[in-house]
Each structure stands twice: as C-alpha cells, then as structure tokens.
Specification:
By secondary structure, this protein is α+β, with helices and mostly antiparallel strands. The protein has 2 domains: about 20-110 and about 205-290 and about 440-450, no CATH class; about 115-205 and about 305-430, Alpha-Beta Plaits. The protein is built from 15 helices and 12 strands. It has helices spanning about 20-30, 35-50, 55-70, 90, 95-100, 135, 165-175, 210-215, 240-245, 295-300, 310-315, 330-335, 340-345, 350-360, 380-390; strands at about 150-155, 185-190, 200, 220, 230, 250-255, 285-290, 320-325, 395, 410, 420, 445. It has a 4-stranded mixed beta sheet with strand order 8-1-10-9. The chain has a 3-stranded antiparallel beta sheet with strand order 3-2-11, with no helix packed on it. Strand 4 (about 220) and strand 5 (about 230) form a beta hairpin.
C-alpha cells in the first residue's frame, strides 16, 4: 500500500465539499470490496495534479503497483513528458467487459448533506471571477484558444426561474431512476446582496477531470472528439473511486436494477459513435452522471439535436446555453459576450423600442449618430437593453481554483462560504421527482452523492 506523506489530519479534509462529505464517501467505500484507503489517497493526489502540485507521471507511478495489486490492471491515462498520452487505444476502447464486472455490495442510505457554502470562497464576495472580454472574442482569452470541439454550458442564474423543467427533461431523456438527479437546481440564502440566489448543478465536464485520473479501467474517460467526460458502463467495475475524486459531487451509483429495463431503451441512445455504452442510465453496479447528451452530439438522434441538450430544450427562460466553448459563434460564447442582448432576444419583448435597440446592437439597423435625434445611438440601445435585461457581468466557475478547468460558466451570484440551501418555490414533488437530500427511496438503494 502506497503511503501518502501528505494525508490530512483527522480534523481536516482534502475534499472541497468538506469533512462530512469526505467521511460519507469513506463510509461508502468501506462497503465495497475495494481498498478504501487507496481510493482516498488517489483522490487527494488527483486533485493535487489538477492544482499543479503533482505531475501526471508522478501520480501514475506513485499508485501503479497498488492499482495493479488491487484491480489486476492499471489502464489510467497519463501525460508523458512531450504531452502525448500512452496506452491511448486501451483508454478509448473497452476490452473483456464481462470479466471486469463484479457484483457490488449494497449499502443502506446515501451520503449526508453538505452545506452549500462548500462551493463558496471567502474571497469571492459575489464579484466577477470570469468575464467575457474583447480578448476572448479574438481567441486569446478564457475561450477560443482550444483546438476542435469542446462542449460546454453557460448557465444564467439570474434568468433561472426554478421551474425544474430541466430536471424532468433530463430524467425523461436518460431514464435514470427517480432521485438520481443528474441535473439539480437549488435555492439558497446567502450574505451576498442582490440578485437571485439559485444554483444549477450538472456535471462540469472538466478539461482536467480528477475522476478520470483515478479510474483503473478507463471506464471514466474524456472523449477525444468533443471533450465530454463519460463513463463506459461495460467497463465500469463500480469501485466508486471517481465519486471520491470528483470535487463537485455529481456522481451516482446504481445500487439496484434500474427502473427502466434495457429493452425499453433505443440502442442509438445507449451507444455513442465509437460503439461504447456511455449514454442513458447505466446497469446495476456502475457509476453514472450527466453526459451532456452525448448521443445527441453524435447526431444519432438527428442532426437537428447536435449542439443541443434535453435540459436546454426544456428551459422556458432559456437560462441554459449549450454549445462549443471553442467556437466564438456558438450560443454560450455569444451569450457570454453580450448577456443583455442575449436575454433581450430570448424575452421576445413586443416593446418597439426594445426591438429597435436589438436591431441597432445586432447591426440590422444603422445607429443614430447623435443622441436626441431620430433613432437610437448604439450607446442608447445598449443602455436600454441593460435596463431591460440586466448586465449579467458577474460570472464564475465552480471551484475554479482547483484547476479542473470546468466547462460550465455561471452568470450571477457565486455562493459565499455562509450560503445555506432553502426550499425552492417549486418542489421536486410538485413535478413528480424526488429530492433525496431530505428523503431516501423506500428500498434505500438510491445514493445522490452530495444531495442525498
């Protein structure tokens, strides 16, 4: 067993979601047949890799012998000195699936709730953490400097009305058991003044995902074609190490037989373009989470759904914007560049002056040269849109200091360290769903992770 010289003391926690969350994860690992201490140590060091405190090669070498001894294989990807990955083929194609699957031991109720303040940082204070700038538009800033496609989201918390349509649509699209909640919307009270206190939580689909680093079988992996972080259910052995290593608490373990049988799921919604089972709900004994609707992005559900997610399609105020974060012309990038314009366009206001302002800002109408004359100057037009729709100039990424590079950007207030979750205007029960941070299903086989 590898000894980690930097293991935190009993009174401390390496996990961003805090000591209580880490203790529940430790208890859940104890119920499996796999090494709990190894899982915790690997998770801690995986986060050190994303922070730049430990190299990929050092991380791989530190645990290679232990992973081999525990799992009989070590297919973890690793960056070599020249930046290329070795074992590429094995990390992208599942082999000998049946021999890797073993029945997981059941445990009772899921993990305990963690305070919403775990998301907050004392320094944030609601100030902008990530802003779209002219440099971004030109490809030299926060986005636009990557190659290929990188699917991601912009979530406008100031527009979200808490209707939970995104949760319902996600459940219907992916057939997960009630209470799994791949998509989660919560309200909270905070000391941060002003604005709507609400948070939407899908998987962040990190560019540098700690959950991938600890997976011994490459079940959890990043898809080369578009940067999606996915789970191959045919390769997953249910060790739950990815759940411990995730800073965001988004993973769900399928304890029992799924409510929707495989016979009721279309194959083109299960298997992606590579033939790997990474979409819809997984079988018993596997880890699952939000997939950003991977098979939609492959085009298998129709070309018209490429670049769309079920939650985005269902959102009445269009607070969810999905698209290619490397493309300056994509919906989320355009939304970040000018939130006031984007919001005004989605509002479909019948006000003629607002429509004129939109036309001026978009270039459909020539702006007036002088204020006070006929028509609007560009400055007047932008002022009208901001007065109507707000500026949307406060943006952030969750736990950005960890270095995971999440591909979800939020517009609105960032939760502070004193944030506490409260009841939303619409309950999960109102829309036929289950909010398991308060209750566990009768058979006690659902684990929600952070929100159980």
């Amino acid at each position: 067993m590898t000894s980690n010289e930097d293991v935190d003391s009993a009174d401390e926690s390496f996990h961003p979601l805090g000591k209580a969350w880490q203790e529940e994860l430790e208890a859940s690992l104890d119920e499996t047949e796999y090494d709990t201490e190894l899982g915790l140590e690997m998770a801690e060091d995986a986060m050190k890799v994303t922070k730049g405190e430990l190299s990929e090669e050092e991380f791989h070498d530190r645990y290679h012998e232990d992973v081999l001894a525990e799992f009989g294989e070590d297919e973890r990807p690793v960056e070599s000195g020249d930046g290329s990955r070795f074992d590429e083929a094995l990390s992208r194609f599942g082999v000998d699936e049946e021999s890797r699957r073993e029945v997981m031991k059941k445990m009772g109720a899921g993990a305990g709730a963690v305070g919403l303040g775990a998301w907050g940082t004392a320094e944030s204070g609601g100030e902008p953490a990530v802003e779209a700038t002219q440099e971004d538009e030109e490809g030299g800033g926060e986005y636009g400097d990557g190659e290929g496609t990188q699917w991601g989201m912009v979530l406008d918390l100031e527009q979200c009305d808490g209707c939970l349509a995104c949760v319902v649509s996600c459940a219907e699209e992916h057939n997960w058991d009630q209470g799994a909640n791949w998509m989660y919307v919560l309200d909270y009270e905070d000391t941060t003044p002003g604005g709507r206190n609400r948070l939407i939580r899908p998987c962040q689909h990190c560019t540098d995902a700690p959950c991938e680093k600890v997976c011994p079988t490459t079940a959890r992996h990043t898809r080369d074609s578009d940067g999606l972080v996915l789970t191959d259910y045919n390769v997953c052995i249910g060790c739950r190490y990815c759940q411990v290593a995730c800073p965001y608490g988004v993973n769900y373990f399928q304890w029992g037989e799924p409510e929707v049988p495989v016979s009721e799921i279309e194959e083109d919604h299960m298997y992606d373009q590579r033939g790997r089972w990474v979409s819809s709900r997984g079988p018993r004994g596997t880890m699952q989470k939000c997939t950003f609707c991977a098979t939609r992005q492959d085009g298998s559900k129709g070309e018209e759904l490429v670049g769309r997610t079920a939650c985005e399609d269902a959102c009445p105020p269009e607070a969810i914007q999905f698209g290619d974060m490397n493309d300056p012309e994509s919906d989320p990038r355009q939304y970040l560049d000018d939130p006031a314009l984007a919001r005004a366009q989605t509002m479909n206001s019948s006000d003629e002056e607002i429509q004129e302002a939109i036309a001026v800002v978009t270039g459909e109408t020539e702006p007036a040269e002088d204020e006070g004359g006929d028509g609007l100057t560009e400055r007047e037009a932008r002022g009208l849109l901001q007065a109507e729709a707000g500026t949307g100039d406060s943006t952030f990424k969750l736990l950005e200091d960890i270095g995971t590079n999440p591909n979800v950007v939020y517009i609105g207030n960032e939760p502070g360290p004193e944030a506490e979750q409260v009841e939303g205007e619409i309950s999960y029960e109102d829309v036929g769903q289950t909010d398991n941070r308060k209750t566990v299903l009768d058979d006690e086989t659902v684990d929600l992770g952070w929100f159980a």
